[in-house]
Amino acid sequence: MRTTRLWPAVAVCAVTFFSALAGAAEKHPDLSGFWNLSRGKPVKDAALAAKLAPNTVVLDDVGPIEYGILEFGGLKLKPAALAKAKAWNIKDDMSVANACRVPSIIYSMQGPFPIEIFQGTELTVIRMEYFDMTRVLFTDGRKHLPADGPHTKTGDSIAHWDGDMLVVETTHLKESTLTNNGLDHSRNVKVIERFKISADRKQLLSTQEFEDPEVLDNRGARFISWDRGVEGDHVHAYDCDPSFAENYAN
Amino acid sequence: MMKRSTRTVRAAAWALGLTLSASALAHHSFAVFFADDKAVVSVSGKVTGFDFKNPHGLIRLEVRDATGAVVQWKAETNSPSILERRGWSRDSLKLGDEITIEGWGARDGSRYMRLRKATRADGSTIGVVFAPQEEK
Lengths: 250, 136
Fold this sequence. Notes:
The complex is a heterodimer. In chain A, β11 and β12 form a beta hairpin. Helices cover 19% and strands 28% of the residues of chain A. Chain A has helices at residues 2-22, 46-50, 79-87, 90-93, 105-108, 246-249; strands at 33-37, 56-58, 115-119, 123-128, 134-138, 156-162, 165-171, 176-177, 184-185, 190-197, 203-211, 219-228. By secondary structure, chain B is of the alpha+beta class. Chain B contains three helices and six strands. Chain B has helices at 9-22, 30-33, 80-84; strands spanning 2-6, 39-52, 57-64, 70-76, 98-105, 112-120. A five-stranded mixed barrel of chain B has the order 2-3-4-6-5. Chains A and B meet through loops of A and α1, α2 and α3 of B.
């Protein structure tokens, strides 16, 4: 437990260490900073849009917006996934056991909570306020974990630069919700994210693409953008209290 | 005092703006659990509880209904960390405070809402009210 709690601090120290090794000769855009999810519709950057793969539907559920029952924004569900979604009951989510169940990064990255990025040369860390999650994006040329490696809610993220975009491929994600209404991804889902800084450096722009042939016949994507936050602000503790679910029952 | 009103389309659009800004993601789906923006619930009463925890804060309110009976309402708030950036704190409400809460009622018709605005008896709002233009 104590080791787990120390991990974000260790990761941040590692970023600082590697950044120091790199010196001031930063050749890539710096994504570092405190970022609040943009209010309203996310920015749909043309260069990011051009990178989307064929057979990809763009979801319109970023931030506080969410789909209703059996609405999936154009995602084509496999029969088993559709049957599961039809059987889904929101009351099941609103239990002590599930009230604080951590979603994977596919869902949590688009939530209306801020993120904080610490960019290094060998790795970059994203601290997320939502559920106190911490992501590590490796840019040291390593390969993904073996297929039987651990599956987690943050997964295994390998990144590289494509011009001014940081491209992140994430695998090894533990099963979790895609749209918060009964559609879950499998442990074999693959996510591609692209991040870039806007020309005025005031926004962090991104796309999130996911493919999961076990669950979907097509691919899904979201545009997600963030506005640069106030200097000195940092992510707060989420510290979810599952006893909240008792309020639904009483 | 309790009222449940149906608003015009324009008012609904205004409310939608508030919904989008105020309904910070919970674990449960907002769209599935709460009613749409055409029916907005507003009740006034005495605060009997205020929890400032994630995944949501919760306001408990003792309300006198149209028959004079005292009933309990609960208003689920945004995530406390988001509310803090909007001027709320865990001390924003005290037991016995007289307030009016406004929000989207639960689809199941229970006395449960998602808060979008809280107002004190003197008319002052608590925290920064979410404005529709922030979403447009």
